[in-house]
């Protein structure tokens, strides 16, 4: 079955303005996705890693990516196709709490 990488973006302000009933349903959706085998998690503090031309590893604290909203979490899900993957994440906390979820096909 095809797999997809999901990236959820959102902030505390958007989360706090979302009705509790909607948030509860969104978290229940995540629990159901995990029960069905999805790997979901919150984003921690990132580290950039570079090794240009294999000449030595350099690291830098913080994200490389910039966005109007912070990266809040990630997932690896299985779905029949992109449409099904979108339906699966459309009820996730980031999607309903004034954030956004990107869905990327994982090409293996």
Can you describe this structure?
- The chain is of the alpha+beta class.
- The protein is built from 4 helices and 6 strands, in the order βααββββααβ.
- A 4-stranded antiparallel beta sheet has the order 2-5-1-6. Strands 3-4 form a two-stranded antiparallel ribbon.
- β3 (47-50) and β4 form a beta hairpin.
- The protein is globular.
- The protein starts with a strand and ends with a strand.
- The mean pLDDT is 96.
Q: Quick gist of this model?
A:
With 108 residues, this protein is of the alpha+beta class. It has helices at residues 12-16, 20-35, 82-89, 93-96, and strands at 3-9, 39-42, 47-50, 58-61, 71-78, 100-105. The protein contains four helices and six strands.
List keywords for this structure.
single chain, 108 residues, alpha+beta, 4-stranded antiparallel sheet, two-stranded antiparallel sheet, 6 strands, 31% helix, globular
């Amino acid at each position: 079955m095809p797999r997809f990488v999901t990236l959820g973006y959102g902030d505390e302000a958007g989360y706090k303005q979302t009705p509790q009933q909607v948030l509860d349903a969104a978290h229940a959706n995540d629990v159901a996705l995990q029960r069905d085998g999805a790997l979901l998690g919150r984003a921690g503090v990132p580290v950039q890693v570079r090794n240009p031309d294999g000449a030595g590893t350099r690291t830098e604290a913080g994200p490389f990516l910039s966005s109007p909203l912070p990266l809040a979490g990630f997932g690896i899900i299985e779905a029949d196709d992109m449409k099904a993957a979108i339906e699966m994440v459309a009820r996730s906390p980031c999607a309903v709490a004034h954030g956004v979820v990107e869905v990327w096909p994982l090409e293996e």
